[in-house]
């Protein structure tokens, strides 16, 4: 094992074959589904001004207080590795002056300096989607439907949707008052952070992970009790639409989500294969004011490591993008090697995936490499074949082989392939 110097940092991983093909399979399927809902991809920088996250997520959230990778760059600017995607998207939408109805998705690494454990990493990957526009229950229901559609398309069963509302902005004061009134008599049971939050940001107490606080929170009245009729009607409409769409959900009156930008609908998707870190995905409606530009939207993000963990724990086979090579070229002698190099390039340009040994190893070692790569066929050439202009085609699974001339060999190998559009048909 290489020394620590050559390992990734704690809580971060290399993703390599064969696993990377499962990642690619998930990504390809996700893009297909997202395009069918009219979402465009956007790739924002991984590094942003710290203020982008501080203002939108909220100063008193766990992410901003304890988890951001923030530092000063060489120019003395405060910058942060993105801990999530929504704030960057809001910054992008505001700066690009996009139409208020933009629909975008993103896929990539996020960074949170949390204590690593199963399902919790310091670099993890999110697939997220954001649908911009003013509060509209149909838009919220559509995003939930999209998120469940993605999970289904990946073959993941057994997901549970938990849903609640944070109400409209005008409810905030009333909700905070009601929570404070219920919590003050039990404040001794709260952790130090939550005792401070009681005055500063009482809603955050609802997502405190400490067991003492959890027991107090369990006994609280639903926050919807303190909300306006309009907020409750909005939420009822979201739930009615989910019913009409045949989407099952569990109302969780204590779900508030750990970020300050949310208003109205909030939800989380959990999976019991994940143990303590059981949140596969989270989302909700938000309003963010960024340097005077107000952006409204609804969106979600899923943790891809957790999605993969749930898929691997179940019976479902995650979609893999791996395709074994169609052909492996085996050379005996220098002349055959040079001719095979040329043939290899020719076949690749015709869309055939093709491999060969470049180190001049023995026939046995070359056959082993063909098997290891899972090649469907081997094309074997020695001096005699080069002289006669023939090839030995071996079907790896059946073990059968026959001697062919070039036109017949090409017909066989290309039978399953068409030249991809835009490629040049080389002359042989
Ligand atoms: P979030 O709940 O903080 O929401 O993260 C979404 C998902 O990212 C989680 O459900 C989880 O699967 C994954 N995740 C978060 N932290 C970690 C970690 N340390 N290790 C592994 N996976 C993790 C957001 O990020 C919001 N931006 C979602 C959103 C989009 N709301 C509206 N639009």
Provide keyphrases for this structure.
five-stranded mixed β-sheet, elongated, 428 residues, eight-stranded mixed β-sheet, alpha+beta
Name the ligand types: histidyl-adenosine monophosphate
What is the strand arrangement across the widest sheet?
Answer: 1-5-6-11-10-9-7-8
- Give the averaged pLDDT, no decimals: 92
- Termini Cα gap: 47 Å
Number of strands: 16
Tally the helices: 14
Poorly predicted sequence stretches spanning 5 or more consecutive residues: 418-428
Largest sheet: 8 strands, mixed
User: What overall form do the CA principal axes indicate?
Assistant: elongated
* Rg over alpha carbons: 28 Å
**Helix-strand string:** HEEHHEEHEEHEHHHHEEEEHEHEHEHEEH
Instruction: Give the fraction of residues assigned to helices.
Output: 25-40%
Q: Strand percentage, roughly? A: 15-25%
Helical/strand content category = alpha+beta
Describe the overall structure.
The protein has 428 residues and is α+β, with helices and mostly antiparallel strands. The protein is 37% helix and 23% strand. The strands form three sheets. Strands 1-5-6-11-10-9-7-8 form an eight-stranded mixed sheet. Strands 13-12-14-15-16 form a five-stranded mixed sheet, with helices on both faces. Strand 9 and strand 10 form a beta hairpin. It is elongated. It starts with 18 loop residues before the first helix and ends in a 14-residue tail after the last helix. 36% of the residues are buried. Histidyl-adenosine monophosphate is lined by residues 84-86, 112, 114, 120-121, 124, 126, 128, 130, 279-284, 286, 299-303, 305-306.
């Amino acid at each position: 094992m290489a020394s620590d110097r050559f390992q990734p940092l704690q809580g971060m991983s290399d993703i390599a074959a064969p696993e990377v093909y499962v990642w690619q399979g998930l990504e390809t399927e996700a893009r297909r589904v997202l395009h069918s809902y009219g979402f465009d991809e956007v790739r924002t920088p991984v590094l942003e001004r710290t203020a982008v996250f501080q203002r939108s997520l909220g100063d008193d959230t766990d992410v901003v207080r304890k988890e951001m990778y923030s530092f000063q760059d060489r120019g003395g600017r405060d910058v942060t590795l993105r801990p999530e995607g929504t704030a960057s998207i809001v910054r992008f939408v505001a700066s690009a002056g996009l139409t208020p109805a933009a629909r975008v998705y993103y896929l990539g690494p996020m960074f949170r300096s949390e204590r690593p454990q199963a399902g919790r990493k310091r670099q993890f990957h999110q697939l997220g989607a954001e649908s911009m526009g003013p509060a509209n229950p149909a838009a919220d229901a559509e995003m939930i439907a999209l998120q469940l559609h993605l999970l289904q398309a990946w073959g993941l069963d057994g997901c549970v949707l938990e849903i609640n509302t944070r109400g409209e902005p005008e409810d905030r004061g009333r909700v905070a008052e009601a929570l404070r009134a219920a919590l003050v008599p039990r404040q001794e049971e709260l952790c130090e952070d939550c005792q401070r939050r009681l005055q500063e940001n009482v809603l955050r107490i609802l997502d405190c992970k400490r067991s003492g606080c959890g027991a107090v929170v369990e006994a609280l009245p639903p926050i919807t009790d303190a909300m306006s009729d309009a907020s409750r009607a909005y939420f009822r409409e979201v739930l009615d639409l989910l019913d009409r769409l045949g989407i099952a959900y569990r109302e969780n009156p204590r779900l508030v989500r750990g970020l300050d930008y949310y208003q109205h609908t909030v939800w989380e998707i959990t999976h019991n294969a994940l143990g303590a870190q059981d949140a596969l995905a989270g989302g909700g409606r938000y309003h963010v004011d960024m340097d005077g530009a107000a952006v409204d939207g609804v969106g979600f993000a899923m943790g891809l490591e957790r999605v993969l963990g749930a898929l691997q724990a179940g019976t479902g086979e995650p979609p893999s993008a791996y395709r074994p090579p169609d052909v492996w070229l085996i050379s005996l002698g220098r002349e055959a090697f040079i001719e095979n190099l040329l043939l290899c390039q020719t076949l690749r340009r015709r869309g055939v995936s093709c491999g060969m040994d470049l180190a001049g190893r023995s026939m046995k070692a070359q056959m082993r490499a063909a098997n290891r790569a899972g090649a469907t066929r081997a094309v074997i050439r020695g001096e005699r074949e080069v002289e006669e202009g023939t090839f030995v085609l071996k079907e790896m699974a059946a073990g059968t082989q026959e001697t062919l001339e070039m036109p017949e060999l090409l017909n066989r190998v290309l039978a399953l392939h068409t030249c991809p559009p835009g490629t040049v048909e080389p002359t042989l």
